[in-house]
Write a structure and sequence with these properties.
One of its GO terms (cellular component) is Golgi membrane. It is found in: Golgi apparatus membrane; Golgi apparatus, cis-Golgi network membrane. This is Protein YIPF. By secondary structure, the protein is mostly helical. It is 69% helix and 0% strand. α7 crosses α9, α7 packs parallel to α10 and α10 runs antiparallel to α11.
Length: 233
């Protein structure tokens, strides 16, 4: 059966105006969620101002904590501090983690702490100690490479920095025994050997056994100099 011209025209009009039309209840819900100011913007054709970007919301959700952004692992730093304070192999600590997984923030914190407690508020020494840490580690690195050691500068920087922790403990003990000269001398000597042993046991390996003293001695002198800064520059 053929359709009349009028019916065809009505069908075309129905198809052209078909679609989803927001109901008044939907409009009221949108206006209530936007508030009075948002509703006024939408009435004047500025509703695009209120639109949000889904990508920005995803970026906010995916933001990392500050410590993770700076690559600071407090658990790892705490474990390395214990490895330095307790350098004896019999205690079961995996001390090689200081060499195999070096970091920057842990040694920097130890060096700054040593700087702050060294000269009782003489803050000009902080920059001097930081300089000695950077260039002293560079010297140890160059000596190790000349002697045939497989060690990186970041590893030397981390080990030398962390190994200042025994000197901080020793400095605290000296406050208690400073009036007993013999005991104070023993504490200072023990602290220097403690720090030197902790660093040398990590940086000096079996690849150059015959040349170990050539690297252990500069490490010892570096910590002697560090500890000499405790009383003044």
């Amino acid at each position: 059966m053929s359709m009349s011209t009028g019916e065809v025209a009505l069908n075309l009009m129905d198809q052209s105006f078909s679609g989803n039309i927001a109901t008044p209840s939907d409009l009221n819900t949108t206006q209530q969620s936007d508030g009075a100011f948002g509703s006024a913007l939408r009435k004047r054709g500025y509703g695009w101002i209120l639109e949000t970007d889904d990508n920005e919301e995803d970026d906010i959700d995916n933001e990392k904590p500050l410590l993770e952004e700076l690559d600071i692992d407090l658990t790892d730093i705490y474990y390395k501090l214990r490895c330095v304070l307790l350098p004896l192999p019999s205690l079961g600590y995996n001390r090689q983690v200081l060499r195999e997984n070096p970091d920057f923030w842990g040694p920097l914190a130890v060096v700054i702490l040593f700087s702050m407690v060294s000269l009782y508020g003489q803050f000009q020494v902080v920059s001097w100690i930081l300089t000695m840490w950077v260039f002293g580690s560079l010297l140890i690195f160059l000596l190790a490479r000349v002697l045939g050691g497989e060690v990186g500068y970041s590893q030397c920087l981390g080990v030398i920095g962390y190994s200042l922790l025994p000197l901080i403990v020793t400095g605290g003990l000296l406050v208690l025994v400073k009036n007993i000269e013999v005991l104070a001398f023993f504490v200072r000597t023990f602290g220097i050997f403690w720090a030197s042993f902790s660093a040398a046991s990590l940086l000096v390996n079996d690849s150059y056994k015959e040349k170990k003293p050539l690297l252990i001695y500069p490490i010892f002198l570096l910590y002697v100099y560090f500890f000499s800064l405790y009383s003044g520059v």
